[in-house]
Automatic annotation (TrEMBL):
It comes from Parasphingorhabdus cellanae. Keywords: Amino-acid transport, Cell inner membrane, Cell membrane, Ion transport, Membrane, Sodium, Sodium transport, Symport, Transmembrane, Transmembrane helix, Transport. InterPro entries: Na/Glc_symporter_sf, Na/Pro_symporter, Na/solute_symporter, Sodium:Solute_Symporter. Catalyzes the sodium-dependent uptake of extracellular L-proline. This is Sodium/proline symporter. It is found in: Cell inner membrane; Cell membrane.
Length: 493
């Protein structure tokens, strides 16, 4: 069985590397080409790239695992994300595409913020670069944890004597392939591989629940089994507190501040093509979320009906892939899981690298660096951030959804209000921008450190994005109004 599965995975890895080589030949001769693909992404590639880089391993591991363990009440996370993504495409995408090009042809989010608020340019670039690297190291680690779990579960004993050996082998293989095509092909490689990976992911997510439902007894048997487990298992509200509901749906707030997602808006060919990209992206996302929900729910019924044992709910996708399908198909399904993981990791590594290159190296060390030198330094930073993420991911007991939720909240609170208001509110000032950026990040970090986010789905905790986003928004508005008032007073005769 392992041989057929490994063949499929090897073919998948080869395809990703081939795309990286193609992109290297096409778009790595300049910073704009390496970091934004020359702003020439088609609507379909931009849409699926944004979706695939967003829907990381949590879509096939974290979300199905949460649904497997707790039932339909976890669907509120998906609903909040869908609404947030739609608003992001409507409000942020067209404005960001237009304004980043108008304001000095900014190639990174920190550079855009610096151009938008030149009086606080240095503070914004430094602070935002630090936040990006910090939270992306955690976010990338979440993806690597998914890769480790895949190899630990599917290839037990193949790469070593212990589960830890298989886990670390999975992390190193996942990181190695991503590094290869990201370092070589840059943004175009990441976007094209995202497109292919997005197609693979959605096919796998639709296929797996349908196969379970086509078994003995069909939908009726699955429903009956789930009701026997828990009468409220299929309810959207059973055991859900108001705080739990609010913490779940506010995941959608995070979209406005995710650099690896919104950078895709900057790379679309033109503002006129944003609506087409939005329609493609939201259709893909809707199908993918429904599939992930189906995997978790039908997977729980399948495990119970067949007397199987699943120690880690986040591996239900892997168990179904290994149990229900021919090894070659299993390899395809596991490639879909790797696609979800790798598409996000590659995007995060590239954004971290671009920020370190443009907002640190070029800003402080080599202002006159050539285009070739800048691209090569960017490749080096990709590798360094990846090594940091590998270190964070070394604990096999790490939970994908937990790591993702922390990083998602950090970006959403730090950059979300800042991006929204900088694009839509002309009275916003540089001082307000810095205040919001720092406030959002600090509140999230303190909230996590004090444990106030614990068990937010139905438990006593509050998801950290709520206080972080609210306080960052308040800080931007208050400091902007105050600094505007001070400017008027200083100009008065």
């Amino acid at each position: 069985m392992q041989t057929g599965t490994l063949i499929s995975l090897a073919l998948y890895f080869a395809a990703m590397l081939a795309i990286g080589f193609y992109a290297w030949r096409k778009s790595t001769d300049s910073s704009e080409g390496y970091l934004l693909g020359g702003r020439k992404l088609s609507p379909a590639v931009a849409a699926l790239s944004a979706g695939a880089s967003d829907m990381s391993g949590w879509l096939l591991l974290g979300l199905p695992g949460a649904l497997y363990a707790a039932g339909m009440v976890e669907v509120w996370i998906g609903i909040g994300l869908f609404v947030g993504a739609l608003i992001n495409w409507i409000i942020v995408a067209p404005r960001l595409r237009e304004q980043t090009e108008q304001l000095g042809n900014a190639l990174t989010i920190p550079e855009f913020l610096a151009n938008r608020f030149p009086d606080k340019a240095l503070a914004l670039r430094i602070t935002s670069a630090i936040i990006i690297v910090l939270f992306f190291a955690v976010y990338t680690a979440a993806g690597l944890v998914g890769g480790g779990k895949l190899f630990e579960t599917s290839f037990a004993g193949l790469f070593g004597q212990t589960a830890m050996s298989d886990y670390m082998t999975g992390i190193w293989i996942t990181a190695g392939v991503v590094l290869a095509y990201t370092m070589v092909g840059g943004f175009l490689a990441v976007s094209l591989t995202d497109f292919v990976q997005g197609c693979i992911m959605v096919v796998a997510l639709v296929l797996m629940p349908l196969v379970v439902l086509s078994g003995d007894g069909g939908v009726g048997a699955v429903t009956s089994q789930l009701n026997r487990i828990d009468p409220g298992y299929l309810s959207l509200t059973a055991g859900l507190s108001f705080v739990g509901f609010l913490s779940a749906v506010t995941w959608g707030l995070g979209y406005f501040g995710q650099p690896h997602i919104i950078v895709r808006f900057m790379a679309i060919r033109s503002v006129a093509e944003v609506p087409k990209a939005r329609n493609i992206g939201m259709s893909w996302m809707g199908v993918a979320l429904l599939g992930a929900i189906g995997v978790g729910i039908t997977g729980r019924a399948y495990v119970e009906m067949n007397g199987l044992v699943l120690e880690d709910p986040e591996t239900i996708f892997i168990l179904l892939a290994n149990t229900l399908f021919h090894p070659l198909i299993t390899g395809f399904l596991l490639a879909a899981l790797l696609a979800a993981i790798m598409s996000t990791i590659s995007s995060q590594l590239l954004v971290s690298s671009s920020s370190l290159t443009e907002d640190f190296y070029r800003l402080f060390l080599r202002k006159q660096a050539s285009e070739r030198e800048t691209v090569n330094v960017g490749r080096l930073f990709v590798a360094l951030v990846a090594l940091l993420a590998i270190y964070i991911a070394r604990d096999p007991d790490s939970q994908v959804l937990g790591l993702v939720s922390n990083a998602w909240a950090g970006f959403g609170a730090a950059f979300g209000p800042l991006i929204l208001l900088s694009l839509t509110w002309k009275q916003m000032t540089g001082a307000g921008a810095v205040a919001g950026l720092v406030t959002g990040a600090v509140v999230v970090i303190i909230w996590i450190a004090l444990g106030w986010n614990a068990a937010f789905m139905g438990g006593p905790g509050v998801y950290e994005i709520i206080p972080g986003f609210a306080m960052a928004m308040a800080a931007i508005i208050a400091v902007s109004k105050l600094s505007n008032r001070q400017t008027v007073s200083a100009q008065a005769p």
